[in-house]
Amino acid sequence: MSADAYPPTDRTTPSRLRERVGYDRAAVHAVLDEATVCHVGFVVDGRPVVLPQLHVRVGDDLYLHGSTGARALRTAAEGGLEVCVTVTLIDGLVLARSAFNHSVNYRSVVAQGRAELVRDEQDKAAVLAALVESVVPGRSSGSRPADRRELAATALLRLPLREVSLKTRSGPPSDDPEDLDLPHWTGVLPLSVRRGEPVAAPGLAEAPVPEHVRAWAAQD
Amino acid sequence: MSADAYPPTDRTTPSRLRERVGYDRAAVHAVLDEATVCHVGFVVDGRPVVLPQLHVRVGDDLYLHGSTGARALRTAAEGGLEVCVTVTLIDGLVLARSAFNHSVNYRSVVAQGRAELVRDEQDKAAVLAALVESVVPGRSSGSRPADRRELAATALLRLPLREVSLKTRSGPPSDDPEDLDLPHWTGVLPLSVRRGEPVAAPGLAEAPVPEHVRAWAAQD
């Protein structure tokens, strides 16, 4: 296993459909970077909680930004919070001739480990800027940076990427041989993310749309 | 609290930003029905696992279809598996004048409870048909239904919708009063799901695209 891949562990080795699972570092990073939100799971009173959060990857650290509740943050502050962070991109609906072989084309990263609270003010400022920049490149200099009060009010968790896997399905449907002569249409219905026209806030002075916003929309 | 809303519980009452949380049954159902996938969290060895799965709502039951691993399925079969099912739709990026007030417009349902394995063959057949139908209306009669062997190989979990909440953010950015004169552009960058042109499977005989597939694509 080279440094270009995350080493598989018991938890990241599936019991079935192993051909869909990979550990390539660049492929994992690409999915994390493309997705707007992740879903963060943690345990409260022995029961699971899953919340959507914003994330940004910086090297081999994944940073999470969002409300997890005071208790989870306290746990994170006191030695770490066990989390499972899952990021899923949906690429298409796969219509097979049989209902059973219907599927979805997707790319999904699962990262497990212990997340810790980011405490250092400079680290927090850098991660917040990276987060804004990851959502809209150019935006961190197109907005006012967080001040000390805002940084203090921001909870950020850091999850080192160690136990990580990428599951994907792509391509056409896989029908059973005995179904190939059925008269049903079969193929893929593509899904992707559409970027709409920017909507200026009410009351915004008649100002030109800045380059970073135009560049974002132009990528649709 | 009327029957048109899910009764709030300790677990579904947030400690902050309460104005973003609701319990309206129709609004919850609309989000569940619009989303292609959910993220299902459960606990294994005291640690969280979050996996993307397909889901379909039938009345006030949410059915989950996807691989959770043999152990989770065994737990589900032996009295139920505690799950947290989270469904998130992203509607836009919210660019405020300050980095701190950047946000996301979204609709997210969190449903918690004990999921049980669906055992009855007729129930399984009906739910699988409903699942196919929910992804592409008309598709359940446009494909071969599952046979007994396929039904036996399909694991379905049923989560009664009881502890459920809907969190939403919509509308323009909320800037602090002291930031309103900053020269930064502010507004919303809309995001939505694009439906692409159907791609027929290789080798598919030259057959017309059926009405249910054309209707799906026409909704883009």
Automatic annotation (TrEMBL), chains A, B:
<dbReference type="InterPro" id="IPR012349">
    <property type="entry name" value="Split_barrel_FMN-bd"/>
</dbReference>
<dbReference type="Pfam" id="PF12900">
    <property type="entry name" value="Pyridox_ox_2"/>
</dbReference>
<protein>
    <submittedName>
        <fullName>Nitroimidazol reductase NimA, pyridoxamine 5'-phosphate oxidase superfamily</fullName>
    </submittedName>
</protein>
<dbReference type="InterPro" id="IPR024747">
    <property type="entry name" value="Pyridox_Oxase-rel"/>
</dbReference>
